Amino acid sequence: MYEKGALDWSTSFPPSDKLAEAKRRPDYVLSPALGTYYYEFNTTKPPFNDPRVRRAFAMAVSRADLLGKIIQAGQVPALTLTPPLAGRFPYVPPKGVEENTDKARKLMADAGFAGGKGFPRVRLLYNTNDQHKLIAESLRDRWQQTLGVTVDLIDQQWGTFLQTRKAGGMSGYDLVRAGWIADYRDPFAFLSLYASENKEINDGGYSSAAYDSLLSKANSLADGPDRMKLFQNAEGLLVDKDMAILPLYFYVSQNMVSMSKWGGWYPNVLDVHPLKDIYRK
Prior knowledge:
Layout: E1 9-10, H1 19-23, E2 28-41, H2 51-59, H3 63-71, E3 76-77, H4 101-110, E4 122-127, H5 130-147, E5 151-156, H6 158-167, E6 175-181, H7 188-191, H8 209-219, H9 225-241, E7 245-257, E8 262-263, E9 279-280
Parallel strand pairs: 4-5, 4-6
Antiparallel strand pairs: 1-7, 2-6, 2-7, 3-7, 8-9
């Protein structure tokens, strides 16, 4: 419909077989978005209740393979839940866990699973979607090759997927696909997901008194560098020391918009475009 002129603005991602063609067009607008694609560990059940195992799985990932061979739409590799945030008081996330297969294998050995020996079958849950499937297959193959583990993929329709996720520690998954798009530009919009009290979203069972305390202290302060530092320390616990989640990439917004016809449309991290500001040229 866009190509035929029936639409002047399309927010739908181009089909994968049309992506390369879309990128060559002057009306294809790619911009950073305030969101993250990641996996969540079920931290309540062995062997993923051991942070060494969670860290090993994170270190064994190759985000270059995911983004270069599967995603291919300009997404940014993520080692943290929160993307860098510009502004008067910018937020710089912690470094996160590096990719290192040798260290990943050593961590598995330290946890008692050298070469994957004795490690139970891993159940990776995702909701039905072609791209989710490709990502899960890529990670499955990577973990099987580098860590010697066996990964079973569980594909569920959205409604069933949500019920299984909500069961959390009582369900049969070890890792589950997750994603979050914030509706305001602040680290708390991301980090609040894993506060112990946030049981509506924190399905993986992560709970840390130290993490909760840092979030609480940060929110007791006025906006400024000290507040951002506390958020950085909190996220360091989440994605480094405790490794409760496995960040994979930061989202981007993709729009096709006829700028020759319309003015007042500008890319932004929230991908919000009030129609009252858009005008016909």
